[in-house]
Write a sequence for this structure.
């Protein structure tokens, strides 16, 4: 037989593997991604519950008393929370205390509504709007200070 006359056929490739079901390695990757997402979601939900608990604690401690007593309770809670961020900070007085409450990037306590914590208890009359602003500011800083100590 002449080699030029051999019956040659084209190369036939096997069919490509189907995309479903995926290989076992892909199941492992999917499980790892789901585990990471579940852990992230759980941690986030736990943090939100913790912040809500601290906010509720702040609101319960402030209570419904007269405004000077509420200012004193706000200051006491902030001093307790400040120990978590920096031990000894609860002993700061006056402007140094307000600067500590300001934090690194702000002046809401030393120049803003939070200044009411320093001298609000000694004022004969407190404006309701100023008190409410100070309360919102103190509540946010309390939660921030509690977060810092974890």
């Amino acid at each position: 037989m002449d080699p030029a006359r051999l019956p040659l056929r084209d190369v036939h490739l096997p069919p490509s593997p189907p995309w479903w079901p995926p290989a076992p390695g892909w199941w492992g990757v999917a499980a790892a991604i789901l585990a990471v997402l579940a852990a992230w979601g759980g941690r986030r939900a736990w943090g939100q519950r913790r912040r809500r608990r601290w906010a509720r604690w702040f609101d319960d401690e402030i209570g419904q008393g007269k405004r000077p007593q509420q200012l004193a309770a706000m200051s006491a809670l902030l001093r307790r929370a400040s120990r978590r961020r920096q031990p000894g900070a609860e002993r700061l007085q006056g402007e140094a205390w307000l600067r500590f409450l300001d934090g690194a990037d702000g002046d809401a306590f030393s120049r803003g509504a939070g200044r009411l914590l320093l001298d609000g208890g000694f004022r004969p009359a407190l404006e309701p709007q100023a008190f409410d602003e100070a309360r919102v500011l103190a509540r946010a800083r309390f939660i921030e200070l509690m977060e810092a100590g974890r």
User: Anything to note?
Assistant: The mean pLDDT is 88. Residues 24-62 form the longest helix (39 residues).
